[in-house]
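re: ur question from the group chat, yeah i did fold both. here u go
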Amino acid sequence: MPLDLPAVSPRVAFTHVEPVLRLYTEAMLGQCLTLKATGALPAGLQQMGRELPTSDGRTIFVPEYVSDFATARENFAAYKVAIVHQIGFYECGTFGFTLAACAQRLPELRQRLQTLEPLPAAPDAFSAFFGVFPQADLARSLFALLEDARIDAAMLRHYKGLRHDVRMLMAHSLAQRPAWHGLTLRQALLEGLLQRTLGQEMHEAIPRFLRPLLRHLWQRLTPLHAPEATVYDTAAALLECYGLITQVPIHALASAASDILESLTALMEELPDDADALALADMFRQVGAEADHMPSLPESGEPGTGVEPVPYRGEVKPEFVQQKMRLQELAEALHKLEHGLSPLSPEALQELLKHQDISIKSLQEGDLTATSGLFVSNLEGREGIVLEATEQQAALRQALAGLQAEMQARYGALPTQSQAFLYDEWDHLSGAYHRDWCRLTETVLEDGGVAFVEDTRQRHAALFAQVSRQFQLLKPDTFTPLKRLVDGEDIDLDSAIEAFVDRRASQSLPDKVYRRRQRRERSVAALFLLDMSASTDDVIQEPDDTTSTALPASPPARAYDFSGFVQDELYATLPPRPSVAVPPKRRIIDVEKEALVLMADALEGLGDAYAAYGFSGYGRDQVECFVVKEFREHYDARVQGRIAAMKPQRSTRMGPAIRHAIHKFARQDARVKLLMLLSDGYPQDYDYGTDRKSKEYGIQDTAMALHEARRHGLQTFCVTVDPAGHDYLRAMCPDQRYLVLEDMASLPKELPKIYRSLTT
């Protein structure tokens, strides 16, 4: 794919290079991690106004734009290096860290870890590891610094084509580092260690008294450059660096010089045969108790436990990533069980529930032959546990909910309801399904406030009242009379008269002369699936657009100046045109949202169960489903805020979204189940089939997904505003099961009509 970088401005925006960077990410890692801008960061990873690369276990986040360099090529290279550095954490096994392996490889850590018996398993390994250090924040900062150095070394070793770009970023980052004189002593040591990872050599700018300490810290970096270095080598380097740095006073000469001398002298005793160290000790002895504060390291009231991050390296929270990956693992296992896919082996189930506080119904070992469940030996010390399929699901749900609650408490407002689902995709060329081909991520939309809903109600007040009255007529009578019954609560007068006539004519008495009232209720569940692809950002043509009062004709180049002045003497007598507030142009997504608000208000009065979701995505591994309202949720301010938060996203992969809707209907017991799909175009995505120019693959997969929905007892109906919709909707939908709107603005008016006709 050719890269078309802007020729005028060197600034490179993520939206411009996103397709290329996605392919680049997939090629580097061999699997497709989601790639997003930092504006989409979850609450647990937000960076206090900074835009730094990071990752959450499934997604790599990069800045909205890069403009640090003089050319667009160099700024694009900064994106590449930042992404590869984030990929390095996955390739180099950072998030596979476990305390058991760490304790086995680092004997000096075992004593500290004995207080944690039994050792916490992933996803709590990093949290527990940093927690064994008295100064956990310092340990966390050191780990990030050292692990970044290991990742950079691996990146330079494996990707020779990136070496020039990596070294360019290192040199640029080194030139941007803060001045030494503004740092506390500990910060200066951390800064010196970080600068060494960027290629810094010992030079005169480094304060003289820091050099011996830095040399000893720099030696701890050497094992991290080895090809066989692992995350546990980083942990070992952390132990050594932490031991050195914590012996240095936090504040730079904030106490008496004699105290500093005492601390440094004790440190020097651990560094024998070092000429610089001895020279430093002699220098302090000469200074003595009357030494003045060193001007390069002023007093600070803040403990120096961290340094400014390197922009291309970003910031990664390994604890968060481990928990997010664990969350995803549990969700995928639960999804497979719920869809009757391959059951979990006893070993896999035991590993999933390891160190989880799960209440499991225990069956006796002798009952194993009478159950189809799995027999799990020694699960958390409990011998002989047999888990039925439903019990497996319950155990996984409990583990999932517990981990979500823990992350919520630790990191604040997270998308804890986000889950990933795997769905098949139909390949019409081979006549078979690609199993578990698409990964759909379900995310609850943020609250955008109720202003949009209130504005919509005011804008369409007359239409809201009309639809409300029409839907009230759909309400069934409370009771429906049943006549001609053998027994009942009352005499059916019509049947009794007929019986009397029949008796006189045939001498026989019919027995079906009773009636009773039977309660009648609507049994309808509807799901609205709204297209949120990028094309829904298009502005619609309003049918009632009116222009302002026309002015006298003017020469083509001398139009009336709307600021109240004229550019031609012919218009000198005209008064200034009054300013008129021009309402913002409505987009396709806005009309979809307005129609949804109208339907929600009407259905609340009618009492039908309903749900609403948006869908978009980019590639089979990044299909997105946005929760607006679940069936079980009330239409409250929170749901109204989600409607307001709906906005255009990326591509239109309909098949997985429809199959996810089928999954949502599984627990609905309604007599009528209606799936309504609202879109502005045909299904398309960059990898929807082998030929990007062909629509056929996506159309056939969507047609098969709709067929699957009908096979599950769902009624389906598709609405589109694409003028070419007839061409592909005929192939996707049965006759009378789709509608092509000529005017998108009419959707709020037409949707209730469609709903009434389908549910009565």
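okk and heres the other one u asked abt
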Amino acid sequence: MMNILNRSRCLATQTLTLVLACLLAATGLALLGGPTAAGAQQATELELEPLIRVDQFGYLPVSPKVAVFADPVEGFNGDESYSPGNRIELRRAGDGSTVVAGSPTQWNRGRIDPQSGDRGWTFEFTDVQEPGVYYLADVENGVRSYEFAIGSNVYDDVLDAAMKMFWYNRGNVAHQGPLAGPWTDDAAYIGPNQDTEARWIDDPNNPATARDLSGGWFDAGDTNKYVTFANSVVHQLLSSYQDFPQVFDDDAGIPESGNGVPDVVDEVLWEIDWLKKMQNPDGGVLIKVGETEYTAGPVPSEVRLPRFYEEACSSATIAAAGMFAHTAVVLRDLSGFEPEVRDLTRRAKRAWKWFHRNAIDTDCDPGLVTAGDADMSREDQLGETVTAAVYLHELTGAKKFRRAIGRNLGNTMVVRDPGYGRYEAQQGDALAAYLDQPNAKRSQVRKIRREMRRAARNDVVRFAPEAGLYRSYLPEPNIHWGSNMIRANAGSSSALIAAAGVDAANRWQHLDRASTNLQSFHGLNPMGLVYLSNMEQFGSERSASEIYHYWFGEGTPFDSSITSPFGPAPGYLVGGPNPTYSGSVPGLADQPPLKVYLDWNTVENEERSYEITEPSTSYQAAYVRLLASVMVNDQ
């Protein structure tokens, strides 16, 4: 990227043509006035080279625009070879005319990037902002990249698709009609002993324990519903709306669209209505509801397994306190929600009291309802008291919540981890919100800002393109099961630090880090893959075709966007590369860290595709927050 000084000097230039020429000169590119002999060559005359990695959806006008030319050395594609020529041209797709041309820059003196097993080159065209559809042409080799757009709306439909994932994952409702497209099914888990009459796992034969626990989201690729796992999801969606309301509309294609309430808020309210059912009259909150075995049907509505709930837990209760309070804060600013605000405030206070009157239990979930262990450590539960206290303090102004923040600030991941929000992102968002509360305690504000400044210097948050060929570097210990969530959270943390102004001199670098992390989900990665499912209709050329999911399983019409009639519903973010993969696919775990990925959904023979391609509402909310932060910072 050109530095801020060069940006400022170029803006002083008088004519538009000279401005562009000046900006391009700062990055070593040449401005060309129209079609050249080489530029007139149409894209169809060039061979597609997928090893030219770009954001397949496109680029916002002021976002960094850097393509990677990959030469695989290690890993599954190590037998491929590609070396770009000396002349790279950015061309308009419509007429083949060349906009800028230049030479690629070798990354890190030709060394192999250890996380991808690739060596490579980069080509920057950041300062091209004119809307249109483009591609990159390697003139000497006669190859080109995928086409991509530049414009202020390149991600609008992507955001709608990503948000609609939550509707497809809603439990106990029919997905039918025009909103569903081909991904239709009747309401699932509403039969005898299912979600409308789930029983207590400790007394499963007693009909008196039956409770209506219908609603909410199925958590991930399984159909269980967890209070603790919903925690980051609810908070990140609410924070996204609070921080970037201009990118969210009332037209995402869900049943509530057009009701005058932003769809992201409607989606959160769907989950909140379920959380209310999980709260006991004394304030305690049940931890989860689901099955004791997992058997997928051809479609979810045909599964007849009984459903059970587990008891109220301290972890679920403090998490619910924060979610109720945060939702009340958001609804206060929307008309017509006054009764709901009062109800949620009462529920948050009851949950807060229950948590503090009962012992903290770190082993509450017995695991009888299968899949994820929903327990939280003592430190994590105390950290969540800070999340809840921030929003209760905003609602009430009570000093006891300020004291709780000070008492437990050291238990938050903001303090315990140098990445400010890459883990437990909701805590980082809450503390950032606390900075703006007029009666926040000054000493606490200073400590939070110190933690932000510390994170700004860390490679998790700091923009460090020299550290990784694909420009969105994460330390290798952070590349694990669900790595895409960590990458999204790291990008959001960069945007948050930029907004807080704690490292003003490097504000553009932090915003560039957020943009580049987002681009890594859109094809700027060693797999050359958009990590969202079935996105070709939204502009991608190659997206995740299979995901591990209870509905879109192997052998169904929704199995694969390549080989089955429909493939999975669009917009699901997969878990991502996972060097800790423990399944039976030969050689997969031996790949370079960012290539431990396979586009498949098989679970037979211990293949465990869920360790890599399973989506999750947690991953999805992290992606939505990052996407929104990048979209708003281009406006």
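fwiw on the second one: The mean pLDDT is 92. DSSP finds 16 helices and 20 strands in the chain. idk if thats what u expected
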